[in-house]
Amino acid sequence: MLTRRHSLLAGAGLALPGLLRSAHAQAPVPRYEPSPALVEAARKEGRLVLYTASFTEVEQETAAQFNKRFPFVRIEIIRASGGQLITRVRTEAAAGKLVADVVDHSDRALMKGIEDLFVEYAPPNGADYLETARISDRIWPRITPVWALAYNSELLQKPPTSWADLTDAARFKPGTLGQVIAPSGGTTWTRIMFERQVMGDDYWAKQAATKPTLYPSSAPLADAVVRGEVLAAPVVRNVVYSKVKDGAPVKLVYPTEGIPVCPYATGIPKSSTRQNAARLFLDWSMSVEGQSWTMAEQGNLTSLRAPPRGLAGFDPAVHKIWLPEQKPFETLRDPWTEEWNKTFGYRQ
Amino acid sequence: MDMHAGSLAVAPAVQVRPRSGLRLGWVWSGALLLVLAFLVIYPMTMLLLGALTGGDPVVDGYKLESLSLDTFRTVLGNENVHAALLNSLVACGGGTAMAVVIGLAFAWIVVRTDTPCKRLIAAAGMLPLFVPPLVGGVAWAILGSPKTGLLNIIMARMGLDFRVDLYSMAGMIFVFGMYYAPYVYMFTASALRNMDPSLEEAAEMSGASSLRTLMTVTFPLILPAIVSGMLLSFIVMLGIYGIPAVLGTPAKIPVLTTYIYTLTNWSPPLYGTAAAVALLLMVVTGALVWLQGRVLSGRSYTTVAGKAFRPRALRLGPWRWFTLGLALFYTAVVVLLPCLALIVAAFRKFLFVRDLASLVDLNQYSLIHFDRLLSNPQTTQALLNTLETGLTTAVVGGLLSFAIGYTVVRTRVPGRRLVDIISTIPVAIPGLVIGVAYLWAWIGLPGGLYGTIWILSLAFVARFIPDTVKALSTSLMQIHKELEEAAWICGRSTLGTIRTIVLQLARPGVVAAMTLLFILSTRELGSSLFLYSSGSMVMAVQLLGLYEGGNLSITAAYSLIQIMLLGGVIGLSHLLTHQSTPQPSSGGVGRAG
Q1: Which of A22, B27, B167, B572 has its CA 20 to 30 A from that of B492?
Q2: Cβ contact, residue pair A94, B148, below 8 Å
Q3: How many CB atoms lie within 10 A of CB B301?
Q4: DSSP-derived secondary structure letter, A304
Q5: Interface mutation target, options B88, B168, B252, B267, chain A, most CBs of A under 10 Å
Q6: What is the strand order of the sheet A265-267 is part of?
């Protein structure tokens, strides 16, 4: 089992370069310039089907931004939870009817298991990505969502600022905190792995003692925070970020003990009939332009070695990024999820 | 009215014309059986294989030596399955009890009293059946959430200490009871209309009070109808996903449908276990369908006499305003309140309501959610796909149902009983189960069915065959055989007779059945979930996506659009047929979702 110290070191590779950059000191972002041949080929294909485990609203924003540059490629989004998505991909592939042109999943271990389905692909700036965030020559971290603590700013005057605060049963009555269930997908698995490895073996029990309200994913939980159903909760930042920008009564803080991040796993299936449109979309997403945009507008982090910008509210002197090691990420999931379910009384 | 088409075989039947011959009869029923085998038997076999192998038969394949009952043993020994089953029985049992009380009272008020505005009340009271369960669940969550529900905010403002908590077993029972009371109403109102009032008059002449007559004569006489409506309500509730998903899940109260969905949603998903739990749900549902058939085969028509009579209307005097008030209260609670909740949620920028002043502050309202929804190309695509799927389902399903209904009700061709039985099986299969079964069964078929709207349409046709066959059979039963015989004597062929006589006379029923199919397929969620693709996304799936995506306001906006679409279809159908607006007497409308 990893010690707390070991875990933090594991995350250091991703943490160091990006967080030294201030949110206000940004260099001009280079524009992504694809080859005319790729653009023309993508134009002929005209559309692509994106299978994603990310949130629909978030990916619709991405599609809209991509279409500002390349309006001739229509993106059709199929969103499903992690489990359903991988089953859909496997079932369709087994039947020879995988219709996705890009598959985008939160669980790198599950994607590693089906990497043979994908073409060998590298974006033009592939060498600029951290090795620790990659698992294969076919699969890339298109987005790197980050966890944060969200709270209803109308109802909570003294917000939680640390993971430890979420175990304070005296401060939070039963049902006033929210939690996403462990088996919801790779992003949440990353968080509960962080909680146990960094916050200690007894963290789940202490958190469960506050009797949090459980939600199937960060999206309904974020909405519950806005509505005041729960006062505070750990959520994936990108699903709350647009609500904050719209003026919803919700604010975000980065907990002091560490911030779990979950690089996605994205690839182009061999069966894709629109490989050029898929490449254009992925190349743009992975480019400095695409990564800078998702950081600024969606609140994601990046797995680029040299992040193009900082994140608002993020102080590199205080906040530490945490990235799980790949091997325990694969091997510990089932037994630890089972334990989490028992600890939180979540039935299966 | 009975539930399955089987008992309709007692209707006046005519012989297929002698020249058609026995061989032609076998060819015809054989063709129908082949179609039904493809639509019903083959997918169910795949589901059983999935449960017996514990995996996804498409991905993992299946070998005879790997078949085992292990998954079933695990499922039957799993205390969480026991809990889900128990919760299902309690929620549906409680909901059914409430539905019986409301439905029976409503039927009595409408049929047997001189309460004013009865037709309006009767029509409004049926509306909940056309509201998709997920939409109903979302509306009541907005109203009755323990912390942020609009009802609680209003009560707090009024200084009341009482709080509503619909995220509970009681909440599910309440919403089930309110929404499925129309089933009991339909059955009991029909029985009350058909009942000879002389039986009640005899009781009263013997000195019994009105109340005693009601309790000792009227209700016992329509007991088969009550039991029938009760069982149908229970069966329908058992297969519903939307309401327990919205109201039960936050309170950690799994029922069988939400449990199955959770298993398929797991990372990685447990499809074999889901298939086994689904088969358990099918067994429970099938047993209830069988029980309902037994009840109906008994005394359901014994109150219908040969002589003409008018249903007796009890003069309530001033009390009629009280019964009117009760009926209006029910209508307001079940129709107006949820619609208001959806309107508030859909137009409010954020669904955070600090207090009553904030609730009525117009600055908090905007069209932002409709803008976002309608600017999303997926919404237009889903709307078009839904209309296309609905139309193809209505046409294909209407033709197939007519063929089955005609064969079962009006012919004596060999094998028609088997056709009847197989076409009734989907009654016992919840939508979620059918979705997995069809995915496994049809994804591997050559011809590119998967990924098109046709796979959805075929799934809907199969799922709703029992409902439409029965709706059509009712029309077919009303046509006397002499009319067909007259056409034959005049030299018409069998097909010519069907086209010129039967179809013409049954036209309102056919239109009603096809409209019913359209509405059912528009609402259907369970079987769509596993079969849609990027190009065949339908509204019900998009609605669930929005709900799971966590934005309740956009979900409410989309719910309003869906309700308006359904309202438009019902209105159009009413205009086309004047009187054949699909009455959900088949029990079908509420089955979807």
Answers
A1: B27
A2: no
A3: 13
A4: B
A5: B267
A6: A74-79, A47-52, A102-105, A265-267
By three-state DSSP, how is residue B398 classified?
helix
Determine the Cα–Cα distance for residues B224 and A179; give it in Å rounded to an integer: 48
- For strand A178-180 and strand A259-260, is the pairing parallel, antiparallel, or unpaired? unpaired
Residue, of B69 and B4, whose pLDDT is higher? B69
The first and second tokens of residue B172, run together, are 């599910």
Tokens of B362: 């117009």
Q: Residue B578: what pLDDT?
A: 58
Query: B524 CB contacts (<8 Å, ≥6 apart)?
Result: B431, B460, B463, B540, B592, B593
Distance CA B579, CA B565 (A): 20
Nearest Cβ partner of A76 from B252, B269, B534?
A: B534
Report the distance separating Cα B99 and Cα A306, nearest Å.
Answer: 63
Cα B417–chain centre separation? 25
Which residue stretches of A177-272 are H helix?
A: 186-199, 203-208, 218-227, 237-246
Query: Is A127 exposed, middle or buried, given 0-12, 13-18 or 19+ CB atoms closer than 10 A?
Result: exposed
- Res B303: pLDDT: 45
Looking at beta carbons, which residues of chain B come within 8 Å of A181? none
Which residue from B335, B348, B262 is spatially nearest to B552, judged by alpha carbons? B348
Rounded Cα gap, residues B362 and B279, in angstroms? 51
Q: Which residues of B touch A152 (CB under 8 A)?
A: 352
Residues contacting residue B85 through CB under 8 Å, at least 6 positions apart? B256, B280, B284
Residue A345 has what DSSP assignment? T
Q: How far apart are CA B176 and CA B99, in angstroms?
A: 8
Stated as kind and residue range, the H or E segment containing A253 is strand A250-253
pLDDT in tens, B465-521: 887 887 777 667 766 677 777 777 777 777 777 777 777 777 777 887 888 788 888
Vertex A180, ends A176 and A184: CA angle to 5°? 160
CB B533 within 8 A of CB B450: yes
The half-sphere exposure of B377 on its side-chain side, counting CA atoms within 13 A, is 13
Whose tokens are 């062929």? That residue is B493
Q: Which one-letter DSSP state was computed for residue B350?
A: S
DSSP character at residue A29? P
**Per-residue pLDDT tens digits for B181-204:** 888 888 788 778 777 777 777 887
Is A214 within 8 Å of A234 (Cβ atoms)?
no
Contact check, Cβ <8 Å, B551/A185: no
Closest alpha carbon to B538 in B392, B415, B437, B418: B392
Contacts of B262 in chain A (CB under 8 A): 348
How many C-beta atoms lie closer than 10 Å to residue A203's C-beta? 21
The amino acid that residue B356 corresponds to is L
Q: What is the phi/psi pair of residue B314, to 5°? A: -75, 130
Compute the distance between CA of residue B300 and CA of residue A110 in angstroms, rounded to an integer.
57
Query: In the numeric block, which tokens belong to residue B159?
Result: 């200084």
C-alpha to C-alpha distance for B89 and B69, rounded to whole angstroms: 25
- CA nearest to A224, candidates B563, B249, B522, B504: B249
* DSSP label of A162: S
Q: Do A347 and B551 touch (CB under 8 A)?
A: no
Q: Is the pLDDT of residue B1 over 70?
A: no
Amino acid A347 reads R
Q: What is the pLDDT of residues B217-242, one digit of tens each?
A: 888 888 888 887 888 788 888 888 88
Confidence of residue B423 (pLDDT cuts 50, 70, 90): confident
User: Does the beta carbon of A84 lie under 8 angstroms from any beta carbon of chain B?
Assistant: yes
CB–CB contact B552 A223 (8 Å)? yes
User: Per-residue pLDDT tens for A224-274?
Assistant: 999 898 999 999 998 898 888 888 999 999 998 999 999 999 999 999 999
CB atoms within 10 A of CB B367: 13
